[in-house]
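HD-GYP domain-containing protein
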Amino acid sequence: MKLVGTKYLAEGAILAKPIHNERGNILVNSGVKLDKQLIQRLLQLGIAYLYIEDKLTDDIFPVSVISDKLKREAMKTIEASFQEIKNSKSTDRSFIMEKSAPAFKALIEKVLEELKGHQELFSIMSDVFLYDNYIFSHSLNVTLYSLALGLELKLPRKQLEDLGLGAILHDVGKMDIPLEILLKPGKLTFEEFTEIKKHANAGFDILRKVHNMPLIVAHCAYQHHERLNGSGYPRGINGEEIHLFGRIIAVADVFDAITSNRVYRQAMLPHEALEILYTGIDTLFDAKIVEAFRNAIILYPNGVSVILSSGEKGIVSKQNKGFNERPVVRIMERDGEKINPYDLDLKENLAIMIVECEAIG
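Structure:
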């Protein structure tokens, strides 16, 4: 299968991976032939990329890091707890979170076990979701990225568990922010951005009173928008004043935001998002963490179209652990002519590199 930008889809293309809502229910199943009306609807819903059936790449599969069953369990746990908080009095919210703490702890342990058993590089691009409330999916994605980072940094098990809890709850303070502000397609006004910024304090206030969670979990909510140069919020702290977990979640949070489908912006591919993180090294983001993130994630997802420095064109077919800039590429075209496809391992051909990448048909 190959990864295709939705805006490049041709009528008659056959969906290779189903589209789910954030509860795991299938909205459009694999095997469905896409017509003009459905393609237009997917574009309107903000779906930037899809996996499409293709005879020449039918043995290429996207990497999946946790099971669909665990994703559904995670989404159910996040939604149930966050919605209960949203519908409650502010004085009851820490108690609600205290009740939910055992479920979140058990969930993080399951996620860690699946991630540790996963030998491939990390990617969540294979999953296409339509969001009723993006906060729930974003919370899970940030948790997965944060734990992948923690594993790359070789953090001890207890720290990984605390980091996972901090990541999955980092946006709990957003439950009082109106969706029309969170999902506004245009630029936020000063007043709207001021409202958005309240969520860091709000999350801290809820989580710091939860007796069966470590206090560092509250600080993850408090610090994930702080930046190394002091330009972040809510306190404008800088450098080592920001806890390691706050610096990790900051990177995971930004990366997921710019690689996810949003109503106001098309999702970027991973290598494009990483370039943005690199522009913020030592000013916004910790260099050690960005480097670790680079080593942990897939830069060029399986199925994506690439152009090589040799002028050849192809589709990424496999990943090389430890050499994420040098995957295996199925060469499909040379000098503008279609050829019999063959796999070229860039790890074994160091003179050749990827110079362009685009999810096109």
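The CA atoms of residues 65 and 306 lie 23 Å apart.
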